[in-house]
Amino acid sequence: MAIMDLLIATPLTRFIAQVVAIVALSRLIGLGVRRLGQPMVIAEITAGILLGPSLLGWLFPDAFSAVFAPRSLGLMSTVSHIGLVLFMFLIGLELDHRMLRGRGRASLVISYTGIAVPFALAVVLSLYLYPRLAGQAASFATFALFMGASMSVTAFPVLARILAERQLVRSQLGALAVACAAIDDVTAWCFLAFAVAAARSAGLTDALFTTALAVTYVSLMMFAVRPLLVKLAARVATPERMTQNVVAAVLLLLLLSSWTTELIGIHALFGAFLFGAILPKDGGFARALVEKLEGLVVIVLVPLFFAFSGLRTEIGLLYSGYHWGICGLIVAVATLGKAGGGALAARLSGLSWRESGALGVLMNTRGLMGVIVLNIGLDLGVISTTLFSMMVIMALVTTIIATPLLEWIYPARDMARDLVESLETLGRPAPNNKNRVLVCVSRADSAAGLIHLAHALVRGQEHAPIDVLHVMAATDPPSLHVTDGGDDGVPDALRAAIATADQLGIEIKPLSFVSPDPAQDICRIASVRETGLVLLASPAPDADQPLIDDLIGAVLSDSASTIAVLVDRGFTQPHNIVVPRHGSANDRAALSLARRLAGSPDVTVIDVPGWSAIAESTANGPVEPQLVVLGVGRELARGSRAAETLVRECRSSLVLVRGSEHTLAMAAES
Q1: Ramachandran assignment for 576, one of left (phi > 0), alpha (psi -120 to 50 degrees), beta (any other)
Q2: Does residue 609 have a pLDDT over 70?
Q3: How far apart are CA 522 and CA 200, in angstroms?
Q4: How far is C-alpha 383 from the chain's CA centre?
Q5: Which residue has the higher pLDDT, 266 or 168?
Q6: pLDDT mean over 176-194
Q7: Which residues pair with residue 564 across a beta bridge?
C-alpha cells in the first residue's frame, strides 16, 4: 500500500487515477458490450459497479479505500455533474421538433399511455415500498412522484442509437418511436421538475410557487431567448464561422440556464436540456456544436457520471431472497407498464402486433435517463441506497433486454423489408425485377457516372425503376443523424445523384440510412427488392490505394444479384463498347450488360489470351473504346494484382461485372 499511497498522494493524483480506471475499464467492457449490440451506458455503469463496493470493495477493500474512498468522491461527483449538464445539452440538441411532423396524434396517444400506465403502477407499488425503502426526507407524494418518473421515462439517446444501428430511423416504426421518446423526455422532465420542487420545498404552496417560476422561465426561454438564438445560428451557418468566441458564448448561456433552474429549484439538468432543445436545428449550427463537444463529453465526462452511479450501487444490500424478490417485482412492474402500455396503445393506433411489440420494447429502454432520475432522488434523500441499487438494476435490465427482444420480435430481414416498403419514395417492386437497377452512391464525385450508367441500362424499358441507395457506416457511438448532408438533410452524394437525374429527365427513388454493416445491408436491400443489377463505383481508380475497398469486396462476394463496378474516367454515353472475352465464367454477364447499354446486340467482342493482354488490346484496337465491359469474378474481391493492373493501365472507363448466381450457373452448365 505504500506504493499506492505514493501514486495517489494528492487529491488531484487520486482523481486522475479514478478517471483512468473508469475510462479504461468502461472502454474494455464496452468492446464486449458493443459486440452484443448493447449501448455503452451498460459498460459504464457496469464499470462503476465493478470498481465499487459490490466487487472491488469486497475483494480488495484496501485498494478500494485507497482509490475510491467515499470522502474522495466529491470532486468526481462535481466534475461528472458538469459533464452531465453538457450531455443533457447535447440531448436537447438531438430533440428536433421536426420528428413530430405528421405523427402528432399517434405519438401523443402512445407516449402518454406509455407514461400513464407505468406511472400509475409505480404509484400503486409505492404504497408497499414507501414504508420499507423510502428515504428519510421523503413524503409519500414525493416518493411516488420519483418512482413514477423513474419508471415512465424512456432513454431517448439509447433508443435513438438502437434505431440508428438497426437502420430504423427513417422507417414508420423508427420515426414514431423517436417522436414518442421525445414527448416522453419532455413530459418526464416536467414531472421530475415538479418532484424536485416538491422535495426541496417546505410544503405544497412552495412547490406550486416553484412550478410557477419554472413555467415562467420556460416561456421566457421559448419566446424571448429562442428568437435571439435563431439570429445567432443564421450568422454562424458554416463550421468555419463556429469560432471559439461563439462556442464560449453558447456555453455561457448554457451554464446560465442551468444555474437559473437550479436556483428556481428544479435542478440544473432541466436548464441544460431546455437550452439545447430551443437551439435551432436548421443549418450547421447544432451539428457544429455537437462536433465541438461530443467527443470529450461522451468519452470522458459521461462515463464518470454513470460509473459514479455504479460506485453508489451496493449489490450487497440485496442480501436476501426478499430483497431480490422486490427487485424482480420492480423490473416486472416497470416492464409491464412501459412495454405493455406502449404496445397496447400502438396496436390501438393501427400498428401491427409485431410493430407494436417492437415499439413497446424500444420505449422500455431507460438506461441513461432512468439512472439520472435515480441519482437525483438519492441526492435529495427521497429513496434509500437499497432502493437505489434495485432501481439501477431495473434500469440496466430493461435496457439490456431491449436489443435481444427487438431481434426476436422484429428480425433484421423483416426490418429491411419493412424499411424499404414503408418509404413513400420507394414503391412496390415492379413485375420485371430483372431490369431493376440499384445504384449505390457513397461519394458525390462518383454519383454522376453511376446515374448516367443506370440511365443507359434502363433507357427504353418500361417498369425498370432506378433505386438510389446511400448507406452510411454507423459511428461509435452511433449517431442519431441519418444523413451527412446540408441544410435539407440530404447527403452530398445523394444530392449529386438527384441533380444528375434531373438533368437527364429521369426519375429515381432515393433511400438513405445509417448501417453498422453497409455491405450486408446493400445485399439485404437488393434481395428484398429482388434487384437484377447492383451498381457501385470504384473508390479511387487512379489513386495509390486499393481499387476495390472492403465494402465493394464484400458485396462482390456475398450478393446474389449481378454486380457492376464502375471505374469512371468521364463516362457519359455508352459509345464504342468493347467486351474483352478471356474465358471467365462472367463473360456472359459482361456481354449481356454491354448489349443492354448499347440497346442492341452490336457490341465489339475481342478475344484475348489473359489479363495482361486486355489493356493492350483495348488501347491498340481500330477504334479506342469509350467503355470497356469486363467480366470478373471473386478474384477482384480478393485483390487480384493482374486485375488491378489492367484497370489502372486502361485509359477508358470500365465496368467490371460479376454475374448473378443464376447467370454463373448457366455459364457452368454450358
Answers
A1: left
A2: no
A3: 54
A4: 33
A5: 266
A6: 73
A7: 535, 657
Please, are residues 312 and 388 in contact by the beta-carbon 8 Å criterion? yes
Neighbour-count burial for 364-396, b at 16+ CB within 10 Å, e otherwise = bbbbbbbbbbbbbbbbbebbbebbbbbbbbbbb
Distance CA 370, CA 68 (A): 24
So where are the chain's domains?
Answer: 85-416, 436-669
276 in helix, strand or coil? helix
Does this chain's domain 85-416 share its CATH topology with 436-669? no
Q: Which residues contact 251 (CB under 8 A, 6 or more apart)?
A: none
What pLDDT score does 485 carry? Answer: 40
The CA dihedral of 141, 257, 182, 231, to the nearest 10 degrees, is 150
Residue type, position 411, single letter:
P
Per-residue pLDDT tens for 476-498? 554 444 333 444 456 778 888 88
3-state secondary structure of 623: coil
Task: Flag the least confident range among 121-130, 378-387, 647-656.
Answer: 647-656
Which segments of 178-278 are extended strands (E)? none
Going from the C-alpha of 476 to that of each of 28, 295, 520, the distances in angstroms are 14, 10, 18
Q: What is the CA radius of gyration of the chain?
A: 29
Q: Give the residue from 97, 191, 88, 190 showing the smallest Cα distance to 142.
A: 191
CB atoms within 10 A of CB 324: 13
Considering the segment(s) 85-416 as one domain, its CATH architecture is: Up-down Bundle (1.20)
Cell 429515381 sits on residue: 508
Confidence (pLDDT) at 333: 92
**Secondary-structure percent of the chain, ordered helix, strand, coil, rounded to 5:** 65, 10, 25
- Cell for 73? 468522491
**Cis geometry, peptide bond prior to residue 478 (ω within 30 degrees of 0):** no
Report residue 514: phi and psi, to 5°. -95, 140
Task: Tell me the one-letter amino acid at 74.
Answer: G
Complete edge-to-edge strand list for the sheet that includes strand 627-631: 508-515, 466-473, 437-440, 533-537, 562-567, 653-658, 627-631, 577-581, 604-607
Q: Which residues, in sequence order, are bridge partners of residue 579?
A: 605
Return d(Cα 10, Cα 489) in angstroms, integer: 50
**pLDDT value at position 156?**
66
- Alpha-helical regions (H) of 476-516: 492-504
Identity of the amino acid at 442: S
Q: Residue 228 has which C-alpha cell?
A: 435571439
In this structure, the number of other CB atoms found within 10 A of the CB of residue 613 comes to 15
Alpha-carbon distance of 483 to 499, in angstroms, equals 17
Nine cell digits for residue 471? 448507406
CATH for the 436-669 domain, from 1.25.40.10, 3.30.70.260, 3.40.50.12370, 3.90.1300.10: 3.40.50.12370
- Give the best-scoring range by mean pLDDT among 248-257, 435-444, 458-467, 510-519: 248-257
Task: Provide the pairing of β-strand 604-607 with 653-658.
Answer: unpaired
CA distance 96 to 278: 9
Per the CB < 8 A criterion, the answer to whether 318 and 324 are in contact is yes
Handedness of CA 380, 384, 385, 387 (dihedral sign): negative
